[in-house]
Design a protein that fits this description.
Oligomer: single chain
Strand content: 35-45%
Mean pLDDT: 94
Radius of gyration: 19 Å
Strand order of the largest sheet: 2-3-4-5-1-6
Number of helices: 5
Largest sheet: 6 strands, antiparallel
Length: about 180
């Protein structure tokens, strides 16, 4: 069986910095120059519509944060603006507080989930030195009744490293009603 596998890509990014040395005003100008509109704003948060995603800029007393969804990062990659965006984030002392790395594999979701269940029958997986509990959130697929959904490692735990495997085809169908390939 031939599998199409994407390159690894960043599917979510949160970066924080000190209010004393902040990237927020530079990010606002970057968004203005690229004509991305403000979708919501209050005293502590600005949500900027970037394509189909949202860039959240949070201003708290103790920290400032930029939070980019997968859709924002995809648009930045496609438009060649990812490096300038990252340069703005890196222009001040900062911390990466969340980074979701992802890879897409063109295989039917239930097949992948069954293989994970067989490989980890005790529902414990060690991503680092400590094994974490597996949580399954499945539902039956309408077309054939097969169980599909999301298989989590360390879901809702305080672990610094967690994993999630999900059926993207089922997620797209549920979210948009559109059928897509595995």
């Amino acid at each position: 069986m031939t599998r199409q596998v994407s390159d690894v890509f960043c599917d979510w990014l949160d970066v924080t910095c000190s209010p004393d040395a902040s990237f927020i005003s530079d990010l606002r100008r970057f968004c203005d120059v690229n004509l991305w509109p403000v979708a919501y704003s209050d005293d502590e948060r600005v949500l900027i519509a970037v394509g189909d995603g949202k860039l959240s800029l949070d201003v708290k007393k103790r920290y400032h944060r930029a939070s980019a969804s997968g859709a924002v990062l995809a648009l930045l990659r496609e438009s060649g603006l990812l490096k300038p965006f990252l340069a703005l984030l890196g222009s001040v002392p900062h911390r990466v507080t969340r980074l979701d790395a992802a890879v897409d594999v063109a295989v039917d979701g239930p097949v992948v989930l069954r293989s994970l269940e067989a490989r980890y029958p005790t529902d414990r997986v060690a991503l680092t030195r400590k094994a974490l509990k597996v949580t399954r959130m499945y539902s039956a697929r309408e077309s054939d009744g097969q169980l599909t959904g999301t298989w989590y490692v360390g879901h809702r735990s305080s672990a610094r490293v967690t994993a999630r495997v999900y059926d993207k085809q089922a997620e797209i169908l549920e979210r948009t009603g559109l059928d897509s390939p595995p």
